[in-house]
């Protein structure tokens, strides 16, 4: 698959949610080549551990978050 820098991405060229991640490799020309990567394995969510951590950290987390403007709650660069 080749993507031109000056060409708009058509709906057919857009990856679907089921597509594996793609690595873009820069070349000396005005195009990019892509190589598919297998999806990374994901750990199952341990709901009971999460519940315990929320109970332990919940109040201090709420106090810490109270110092942050709500518009930045989902902005990781604000925390970094």
TrEMBL record:
The lineage's top-level taxon is Eukaryota
Q: Where is this region: Disordered?
A: 1-22, 28-47
UniProt keywords (A-Z) are: Receptor
Q: What is this protein called?
A: Receptor activity-modifying protein 3-like protein
Provide the species name. Answer: Lates japonicus
Which taxonomic lineage is given here? Answer: Eukaryota, Metazoa, Chordata, Craniata, Vertebrata
């Amino acid at each position: 698959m080749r993507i031109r820098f000056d060409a708009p991405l058509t709906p057919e060229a857009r990856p679907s949610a089921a597509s594996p991640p793609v690595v873009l490799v820069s070349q000396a020309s005005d195009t990019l080549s892509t190589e598919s990567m297998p999806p990374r394995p994901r750990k199952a969510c341990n709901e009971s551990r999460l519940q315990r951590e929320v109970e332990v950290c919940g109040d201090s987390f709420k106090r810490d978050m109270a110092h942050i403007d709500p518009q930045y709650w989902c902005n990781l660069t604000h925390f970094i």
